[in-house]
Amino acid sequence: MNATTTSAHRQLTGQWLVRGRWPGRLFLGLVLAVIVWKLVESLLAGPMVFVQQLINGVQLGMVYALIALGYTMVYGIVRLINFAHGDVFMVGAFVSYYAISGFRLHEWPSRVFPGMADGASIAIGTVTVMILSMIVCAVLAVVIERTAYKPLRDAPRISALITAIGVSFFLEYFGALDFVFTPSFITYERPFPVQTYYIQDGIHLLQAGQTRPAGSITFSNILVIIVIVSLILLFLLSTFVQRTKTGKAMRAVAFDKPTARLMGIDVSRTISVTFALGAALAGAGGMLYAIAFPSIVFWMGIIPGLKAFIAAVLGGIGSLPGAFLGALIMGQAETLAGAYISSPMRDAIAFTLLIIVLLYRPRGLFGEPEREKA
Amino acid sequence: MKPRFLFAVLIVLALVLGACAPAATEAPAEPAAPAATEAPAEPAEPVAGEPIKIAILSPLSGAVPTFGVSNRDGALYAIKEWNAKGGVLGRPIEAIVEDSQCSADPAVNAANKVIGQDGVKFIVGEVCSSASIPVSEITNEAGVVQISGTSTNPQVTLNLDGTTKEFVFRACFIDPFQGTVGAAFALKQGYKTAFIMYDQANDYVLGLAENFEKAFVEGGGTIVGKESYTGTDTDFSATLTKVAEAAPDVLYVPDYYNIINLVGAQAKEKGVTAVMMGGDGWDSADLDMAAAEGGFYTNHYSPEDTRPIVVDWVANYQAEYGAVPDALATLAYDATNLLLNAIETAGTADDTAAIAAALAASEWEGVSGKITFDEQHNPIKAAVILGVQGGRITYVDTVAP
């Protein structure tokens, strides 16, 4: 009796050893412990540098947020991971490039109203370019949705996914043609001059050619603009989704498509609006990204697109606040990994985050549990 | 009826062409035959006035035709100059130009043609390493002396087992050498500390970075930081924050212009005023002058160099071809001069082993610097330093390692 329980116990232990998830958990626990230890150590070693790295991460996270929202909205409504979204982001960057360098669109206020103050005319001009990028991307996304995704709406989900990958490649290599965009890197012309400020007993402007004073924290006007523009767009989006009739229709379609249709909601139109909104945000994101990192190329959307996708999954795909928070976490993870762990490993660390989330919380931070549909 | 008629015409045409084809291949064979019988008599008593043939393999079509034209013109100008001086060993030089398309197959065909059919013993070219490497296998086997102006891949002059190809040379320095020269320049400028940023997956960048570090440390400098990145990165703020903390004199980024545009712009935003330095990957019309402002990079040659030999070369080339000679033309010119000088020194145009030995031992004042060869047949010579100042690229210095 005693012997049998022991052997049964042994057997159980054996099974636990073989089948259990403990090696994975132990490994993850160790990795997390090392990461936390590294971060705490760095924080104590140089608090100012740590804060500086956090600020760097915010800039990246905000741009990811603009892309991630498009992923999450489209997924929420048609259960499609729109892999072409990153390339719409690229198109946004290129449209703004041509508007600025080709047509000098950002200078129109100073040409039409010569007396206008510099700051105001630059701001209005830049916003004009951004709105143009957003409109072009929105139209492009609706065209893509109507031609490539709509005919497959009732097909198995995998068909639409493969189509999305196809559209993604199409946009990239169509953009790489000489007469569309170009196959080479282009230097992006910023619509406004960059100014850097440093914080040390108050905020001061860093003069051109001036070395950053030791121990100070720097930030640029680009960071300020990215944060402000992103927050405004996010506010507008959430207002639209929560307060307007179309927004209500979007939520209804996301919740239950057939019933929404029975209630008289034009599902097709609502889906198109969703694509357009997501793409407009991606277009704005593309322009902001190009301003921050002024070298653009036809494949520039792939990596930010993937990271924004991870951010959306991290936050719970389908959830707007989730995508926003997920993107901020991604931005910080990437920057801190690059700063304190290993800069070539930063992408690997970002993707590891995705795996961890999928293992332990498949629905993400804010995701609703998947409702099984008959 | 009609198809049958067409078919008949086709058959007739095929027969006619078939009959013509052997005739066409026979034709060049005939004049070649007497030349072949004459050849054995030649080494015994070289006929004065019998031309020395030099083949120029240039990619005149294909991906990089402008490279090919520069390469050809540079080599042809050198030959023209020697002929004007009375040739080599009292014999005129005859150039045979072949289009090798910057690609292995056409280059190998061209090499086989000039060696087998024209009896050439000297080849200048190819431009691209991808074409020069397969050609070098043939020339080294056949004992034909080959010198490339611009192929930078180490494998051009090396066998797979790491030994040097006896008959193969180049006139340009190989990439990693630029790191050594960059460090020499940095030390000469009085810079004491350097931070290196490099793409860990790019051999070109790695080679430059390693050699820069080695030479900089040996020369008494300190490396205050080294950070790697991947080629698809766009956000360098985390690394540049570290650079700002380390406050080095030099930020060495030996990558291509697209990375320089990003790193340079972000460094300036972070208040990093370290002098940026790099290699010839910067050399592009698309380099963002504002981002690279204040930086320096190493290169093979600059037409703004003030040494008299360069001034003369630029003036002569311009008079002949109506354009400022680029690095390709200059290196092809130097390569051809090195080769002809070696023939002159060896005192023979037939014993290619002696000529290769003379070439390996040569000491030649070329347009791109004073050239000697190391044991791997790579030139040891000065590099030019170019600076980005006031939104344009200017010649700064010529630095020997």
Would you report the number of β strands of chain B? Answer: 15
Taking the alpha carbons of the first and last residues of chain B, their distance comes to 80 Å
Elements of chain B, N to C (H/E):
HHEHEHEHEEHEHEHEHEHEHHHEEEEE
- Count of all domains of chain A: 1
The fold-level CATH name of chain A is ABC transporter involved in vitamin B12 uptake, BtuC
Radius of gyration of chain B: 25 Å
Secondary-structure element order of chain A, N to C: HHHHHHHEEEEHHHHEHHH
State which percent range the strand residues of chain B make up. Answer: 15-25%
- State the CATH class of the largest domain in chain B: Alpha Beta
Overall CATH architecture of the largest domain in chain B: 3-Layer(aba) Sandwich
Largest interface, and how many residues on either side?
A: A-B, 40 and 32 residues
Which fold name is given in CATH as the topology of the largest domain in chain B?
Rossmann fold
**H/I helix tally of chain B:** 13
Let me know the average pLDDT of chain B. Answer: 85
User: What can be said about the biggest beta sheet of chain B?
Assistant: 7 strands, mixed
Which CATH class of chain A is shown? Mainly Alpha
User: Which strand order do you get reading across the main beta sheet of chain B?
Assistant: 7-6-8-9-10-14-15
Return the structural class of chain B: alpha/beta
Can you give me a brief rundown of this structure?
The complex is a heterodimer of chains A (374) and B (401). Helices cover 71% and strands 4% of the residues of chain A.
Can you give a write-up of this model?
The complex is a heterodimer of chains A (374) and B (401). Chain A has 374 residues and is mainly alpha-helical. Chain A is 71% helix and 4% strand. Chain A has one domain (46-207, 215-360): ABC transporter involved in vitamin B12 uptake, BtuC (Orthogonal Bundle), CATH 1.10.3470. Chain A contains 14 helices and 5 strands. Chain A has a 3-stranded antiparallel beta sheet with strand order 3-2-4. A two-stranded antiparallel sheet of chain A has the order 1-5. In chain A, helix 3 (47-78) packs across helix 12 and helix 3 runs antiparallel to helix 13 (320-341). In chain A, 44% of the residues are buried. Chain B has 401 residues and is α/β, with parallel strands linked by helices. Chain B has 2 domains: 52-173 and 321-382, Response regulator (Rossmann fold), CATH 3.40.50; 177-299, Response regulator (Rossmann fold), CATH 3.40.50. Chain B has helices spanning 2-38, 41-44, 65-84, 104-116, 129-142, 177-188, 203-218, 237-246, 257-269, 289-292, 308-321, 327-346, 352-360; strands at 52-58, 93-99, 122-124, 145-148, 168-170, 193-199, 222-229, 250-252, 275-278, 296-299, 364-366, 369-373, 379-380, 383-389, 392-399. In chain B, helix 9 links the parallel strand 8 (250-252) and strand 9. Chain A binds chain B through residues 46, 49, 52-53, 56, 59-60, 184-187, 194, 196, 198, 206, 209-212, 214, 218, 220, 222, 289, 292-295, 297, 300, 303, 334-336, 338-339, 343-344, 346-347, and chain B through 200, 227-230, 232-235, 237-239, 241-242, 244-245, 247, 257-258, 261-262, 265-266, 268-273, 286, 288, 291.
